[in-house]
Amino acid sequence: MVKPDLMAQLERDLGSAFTFERELGGGGMSRVFLATERALGRSVVIKVLPPEALGDVSVERFRREVALTARLQHPNIVQVIGAGETTPVGAKPGLLYYTMPYVDGESLRARIERVGKLPMADAISIIRDVTRALAFAQAHGIVHRDLKPENILIAGEAATVTDFGIAKALERSEAEADDGSPRGRPMQGKPLTSVGVAVGTPAYMAPEQIAVDPSVDHRSDLYALGVVAYEILAGAHPFAGRRAVALLAAHATEKPRPIELQRPGIPPGLATLVMGLLEKRPEDRPQSAESVLRKLDTIGTHTSGTMAAAAAAAVPRPRQPEKRSTRPTAMLAVVVVVALAVVVAGYLVSR
Predict the structure, then answer these.
(1) 188 pLDDT exceeds 50?
(2) Which of 97-106, 129-138, 329-338 has the highest mean pLDDT?
(3) Strands 18-24 and 334-337, sheet pairing
(4) Furthest-apart CA pair in the chain: how many Å?
């Protein structure tokens, strides 16, 4: 249920532009609301970032970073269509928010929890759609940094990726002041990526993100793609059953159990591709989403069926949109302070 004070604040500050309907389940660092945009009569999603998750974020830099991601227009990407800040209330700062079109479907997380291990054809279709989104974003210099099943939406037989660049926007806007200079922070004001803080979700973070490597690039998204692919094919996260700290250590130091042992009958080329995406060193993974697409085009499914058929055959469970899973694979997006020297050391040694 939406807290009355937050709803009142949103309706007071944004009520002239939006009619708020309800809060949606799932959102990681954000509170997610369904609303109707008054001017166009369309349904939109408004994601509100609470102050406790933001620290010293620069509002103007956040807007500029989000504006860059808003240029992404692709069938497999949910476009950001607006961003702003609510009015401060007394000593409380305003809340940052951004808006996107509403996708009438379900998240990949909900599909996994409802169906479990996805049929091969459906899994490959989703992997291909997500890879197309990554390829388009990479061609425009945008890295997602928080790819996970919660950020992949399924409507009909198509998968779309949401929240492109938001993690980067938060990281950049907290690291720098409005004039582009580093903010005064611990460790002589070094940027966020230099002081041992990483923005992301532990279950899907690449080793270089965990080590807060300042050179993190699009290959971290390919690692997360590998984790998602492993999960929907095997029916379980490669490091299932572990808490955040253990997940970070596993990503940095452990090799997942081969996917072909988890999913007998998987096409050999697909098994090789998934395990290649999960390589610890970025240079050992496929080097671009385009190369992943080319490999996917050579893989047969050896099965039949569509996502629609799988959804119809599945026995639905009662939906509880505001209930969040406590499993590691559905862990909230958090700001992770990396304090385990063994994790960072393990990654650096592997370099």
Answers:
(1) no
(2) 129-138
(3) unpaired
(4) 62
Return d(Cα 239, Cα 219) in angstroms, integer: 20
CB 332 within 8 A of CB 28: yes
Residue 122 among the catalytic residues: no
Q: Which residue among 13, 129, 146, 163 is the active-site one?
A: 146
At 304 the three-state DSSP class reads coil
Identity at 121, one-letter amino acid code: A
User: What pLDDT, on a 0 to 100 scale, did the predictor assign at position 225?
Assistant: 97
| Ramachandran angles phi, psi of 84, nearest 5° | -175, -165
DSSP 3-state of 186: helix
Strand 96-101: give its sheet, edge to edge: 18-24, 31-37, 42-49, 96-101, 82-85
* CATH entry 3.40.1190.10 includes domain 105-350: no
Whole-prediction pTM value?
0.77
* End-to-end alpha carbon distance in the chain: 47
